[in-house]
Amino acid sequence: MSKGNVRRSLFLEKNRSIKEQEKPNQGFLSRHFKKIYPLSLQKSTSSLSLSSLSLSLSQNSNDSSLKDYITPLDRQIALSLRLIAPPERREVPVAITNVQKQPSSEVGNGEVKRCNWVTKNSDKVYAEFHDECWGVPVYEDNRLFELLAMSGMLMDYNWTEILKRKELLRDAFSGFDSNAVAQMGEKEITETASNKALMLAESRVRCIVDNAKCMQKVVRQFGSFSSYIWGFVNHQPMIIRCRYPKSVPLRTPKSEAISRDLIKRGFRLVGPVIVYSFMQAAGMTNDHLIHCFRYRECLSLAQTQYMDAVPDININLLY
User: Fold this and answer.
1) Which phi and psi angles does 306 have, rounded to 5°?
2) Do the Cβ atoms of 276 and 259 come closer than 8 Å?
3) Which sign, positive or negative, has the C-alpha torsion 207, 208, 213, 216?
4) pLDDT, tens digit, 9 for 90 and up, residues 182-233
5) d(CA 259, CA 270)
6) C-alpha–C-alpha distance, residues 116 and 286, integer Å
């Protein structure tokens, strides 16, 4: 081969290599995108610009952004990138489940909730006692004496049987005036015990008379039976938050202390369980279940009634 031919061959190869370097690398992106995203990308004479690529990454799922791409290749690449782009983050409100609700005192049919031991089959007089008296603080000596006497009768009868004879008992014991009852003689005691409507044994009648005499001694020492008995709870109704009947105590250390002191002073039929029943009836403790409509009403009554009697006393809540 002559020198001229060699020079001509070298010149042609050099020109060919320069032209190949100047050609756009169209197959690079297509080859690598096909490896990652299985899409059939069509060939195009225009290359993928960096501005188009960055735009596709920044757009959300709105299809109107596709019109910004000039060529089909740009549009398909943008679609493929959009498939793997992280979805738009949306804030979802979190439901709060740990909020403690206050127990409602109403049922669906509009009726109020009562303590579980008061049912639809309960006697009317017992339901009225629960709704109007039980748990309401009592400060009058005559009424405290009445409740103490009726609580002692729980040894023989239940509250319903006792409450049905309440008016007869009041007539028999002079409205439970301790001064009048303390003056009852043998004849009056016998007549009262023989009254079949009362259904009280003579021993029970004598017990009430003896307790009236003991109450007079307490009045002389403390000024009133109310001041004496309420002093055991620091003149503050005790509030026991009970959800279930099984949580309501039959006796407490407080009732045991009161019982011991009453017995020491000569009172009869005043064991710890009877005394605690008396405390519940006299409102010295609020044992209504917390879902009962009377629970909060007795709280309010305890505050307003006792504030009127002793303005400097606050209600003590025991949790």
Assistant:
1) -80, -30
2) no
3) positive
4) 999 999 999 999 999 999 999 999 999 999 999 999 999 999 999 999 999 9
5) 6
6) 15
The rounded radius of gyration (Å) of the Cα atoms in the chain is 46
Cα separation, 105 vs 110, in Å, equals: 10
CA–CA gap between residue 77 and residue 56 (Å, rounded): 8
Q: How many other C-beta atoms are found inside a 10 Å radius of the C-beta of residue 140?
A: 12
Residue that wins the pLDDT comparison between 111 and 103: 111
Burial class of residue 229 in the structure, from the number of CB atoms within 10 Å of its CB (0-12 exposed, 13-18 middle, 19+ buried): buried
Q: Which amino acid is at 257?
A: A
pLDDT score for 299:
85
In single-letter form, the type of residue at position 82 comes to: R
Lowest mean pLDDT among 123-137, 162-176, 235-249: 235-249
Cα–Cα distance between 106 and 124 in angstroms, integer?
20
Place of tokens 């031991």: 117
The yes-or-no verdict on residue 319 having pLDDT over 60 is no
| One-letter-per-residue 3-state SS of the chain | CCHHHHHHHHHHHHHHHHHHHHCCCHHHHHHHHHHHCCCCCCCCCCCCCHHHHHHHHHCCCCHHHHHHCCCHHHHHHHHHHHHHCCCCCCCCCCCCCCCCCCCCCECCCCCECCCCCCCCCCCHHHHHHHHHCCCCCCCCHHHHHHHHHHHHHHHCCCHHHHHHCHHHHHHHCHHHCHHHHHCCCHHHHHHHHCCCCCCCCHHHHHHHHHHHHHHHHHHHHHCCHHHHHHHHHCCCCEEECECCHHHCCCCCHHHHHHHHHHHHCCCCCCCHHHHHHHHHHCCCEECCECCCHHHHHHHHHHHHHHHHHCCCCCCEEEC
Specify the amino acid at residue 292: C
Residue type at 189 in one-letter notation: I
Q: pLDDT value at position 98?
A: 41
